[in-house]
Structures are given as C-alpha cells and as structure tokens.
C-alpha cells in the first residue's frame, strides 16, 4: 500500500511539474502586469489537461498588442516617408520636363505655327549669312586682282588682254566701253561718246549692286518683324492661359505657369531670329558698301581707258589732217 501510494504521489508531482512548465514560459513572454493571472490559472491547468494549449494564445495575444501597436505605427510612418521620397522626385521630374521641346509640343496650334515660322526665319538668316560671306569674299578678291592687272594698261584692248577670258564686273565694263567705241565710230564728238559710255557703266554698276544686295531685304524684314511675330505668339498663349484660369476657377500659379512659359518661348524665338538678322544686315551693309566702292573704281578705270583710246584716235586724225 505504501509503495502504491508513493508511486501515485510521484505521478501527481510529475504531472504538476509538466503543467507548471508552460506557465513559466508564459510568464517570461507575458508582461509583468499579467503575471498574476497566469499564476492563478496554473492550479486549473492540473484539472484540465488541454488548458496549456489554450493558455498559449492568450499569452501571445497579450504580448503581441504592444509589439503590434509599435509595429503598425512604424509601418504607417514608413510609407509616409516613402511617399514623401517618391513625391520629391516626381515634382523635380515635372520641373525638368518643362523644357523648350516639351513646351513646344504642348503649345497651342497657332503658337506652334509662330514658333515654326520664326525658326525657319532664323534658318534663312544663317543661310544668307553663310552664302553672302562666301560670295562677297570671292568677288572682292577677284575685283582687286583684276584692278591690279589693268593698272598698267594703256588701252581697252590691252586691258582686255590682261584680264583674259575671266568674267566679272570689270570685264563687263571694258566690254561696254569697247562696244560703245565701235558703235560711235565716225563721230567726232568725244563728249557724246564718253557720256554714252558713262550711261552704260552706270547701268552695269546698278545691276551689280542689285545682285550683291540680293537677300539683304529679307534680312531687314526678318530683323524688323520677328519680334512682333513672337509677341503675337506670346499674346495668344497668355490669352489661352487666362482662359484656362477661368475654366479651372483657380488662381494657382502651377495651373497657368506652363501656358505662360510656352507663350514667352515664342517671344524668345522671335528675338533669336531678329537679333542675328539685324547684326548680319548691318555687317553686310558695310561690306557691300566697300565692294561697291571697288566697282566704282573699276568703272572709273574703264572710263579712263576709253578716254585714252579716243584721244589717240582723234589725235592721230588731227595730225594726219595737219600733215595734209
């Protein structure tokens, strides 16, 4: 009897120790405020074997709320920071997209037409600049060389021989003088021949001036009208911006800033087209004036050669008449 009683006592103690182990684990996990309820539930666990399995969820649920609350607060705070980080690049990207090309693509049809027209005018300006620079450089060099060649000529025939078959304004002047001398053969009035030759020279000089000034009028037109064309595009764009303000019923600057920027871009392109056109026109005016002075020198040289030929012709005839 004593042996069986002692065995029963040992079995009860082992069961109590096994049931007490989970309660100790629950006390370590649970906060100190809830340790007393866990100790009160320990005697009940001896009567109900399934109680430890059911006691674990309350302990975990008791420990989780504090952690869950802090975890949820961190989780809520983290997306807010992430959203702020995402919003900053987005705003920066929106500002970077406000480039001249993007403004041109989002502009009104009329503003686009104005910008395209002004860009084409700027292209024409630089094309004329390159072409006229090459042309004026070549013709000035040729004319100076031709004047140097005929500087020692004593007659029209000798000057033509010195020039050869080259074409140019000086060759045209010499040919006109020779033509007038042939057509006026037999006329004793030297003054009439010189007057008619001077008329031919003036026509050649005017034709050369018109040829060399070709494109200058277009430069003047571009320089004078481009700012006003750009201003028209600006006025039109700002008008559309104010219409957008009335439709959106807001005074936020972000709503109207893109439209105003597009409008101001038209004025900027107009100035880009006008300023070089004015500068190039003034430059070519000076260069053309210098070239036309060389042309007048060539006209004077041809006139002097014609006068020498006439004096020789009439001088020879007078000497023959005196000898007879």
Structural class: mainly alpha
How big is the Rg?
52 Å
Q: How many structurally independent domains? A: 2
Beta strand count = 0
Task: Explain this structure.
- This protein is mainly alpha-helical and 324 residues long.
- The protein folds into 2 domains: 2-94, no CATH class; 103-323, no CATH class.
- Helix content is 88%, strand content 0%.
- It has 10 helices and no strands.
- It has helices at 2-29, 35-47, 51-96, 100-105, 109-149, 156-163, 169-183, 190-212, 216-248, 253-323.
- Helix 1 packs antiparallel against helix 2 (35-47) and helix 5 runs antiparallel to helix 9.
In short:
By secondary structure, the chain is mainly alpha-helical. Helices cover 88% and strands 0% of the residues. The radius of gyration is 52 Å and the shape is elongated.
Keywords for this entry:
2 domains; mainly alpha; single chain; 324 residues
Can you lay out the helices and strands and say which pair or pack?
Elements: H1 2-29, H2 35-47, H3 51-96, H4 100-105, H5 109-149, H6 156-163, H7 169-183, H8 190-212, H9 216-248, H10 253-323
Helix pairs in contact: 1-2, 1-3, 2-3, 5-9, 5-10, 6-7, 7-8, 7-10, 8-10, 9-10
């Amino acid at each position: 009897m004593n042996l069986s009683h002692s065995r029963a006592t040992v079995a009860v103690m082992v069961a109590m120790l096994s049931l007490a182990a989970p309660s100790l684990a629950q006390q370590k996990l649970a906060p100190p405020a809830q340790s007393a309820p866990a100790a009160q539930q320990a005697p009940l666990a001896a009567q109900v074997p399934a109680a430890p399995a059911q006691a674990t969820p309350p302990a975990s649920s008791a420990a989780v709320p504090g952690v869950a609350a802090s975890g949820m607060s961190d989780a809520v705070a983290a997306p807010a920071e992430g959203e702020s980080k995402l919003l900053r690049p987005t705003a920066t990207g929106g500002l970077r997209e406000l480039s001249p090309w993007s403004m041109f693509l989002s502009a009104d049809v009329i503003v686009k037409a104005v910008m395209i027209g002004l860009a084409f005018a700027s292209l024409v300006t630089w094309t004329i600049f390159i072409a006229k620079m090459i042309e004026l450089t070549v013709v000035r060099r040729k004319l100076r060389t031709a004047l140097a060649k005929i500087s020692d000529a004593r007659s029209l025939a000798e000057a033509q021989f010195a020039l050869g078959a080259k074409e140019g304004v000086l060759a045209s002047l010499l040919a006109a003088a020779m033509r007038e001398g042939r057509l006026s053969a037999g006329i004793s009035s030297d003054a009439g021949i010189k007057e008619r030759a001077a008329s031919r020279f003036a026509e050649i000089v005017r034709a050369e001036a018109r040829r060399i000034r070709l494109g200058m009028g277009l430069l003047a037109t571009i320089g004078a009208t481009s700012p006003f064309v750009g201003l028209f595009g600006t006025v039109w764009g700002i008008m559309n911006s104010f219409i957008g303000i009335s439709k959106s019923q807001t005074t936020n600057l972000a709503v109207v800033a893109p439209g105003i920027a597009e409008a101001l871009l038209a004025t900027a392109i107009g100035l880009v087209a006008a300023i070089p056109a004015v500068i190039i026109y003034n430059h070519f005016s000076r260069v053309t004036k210098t070239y036309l002075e060389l042309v007048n020198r060539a006209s004077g040289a041809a006139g002097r050669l014609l006068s020498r030929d006439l004096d020789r012709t009439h001088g020879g005839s007078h000497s023959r008449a005196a000898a007879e």
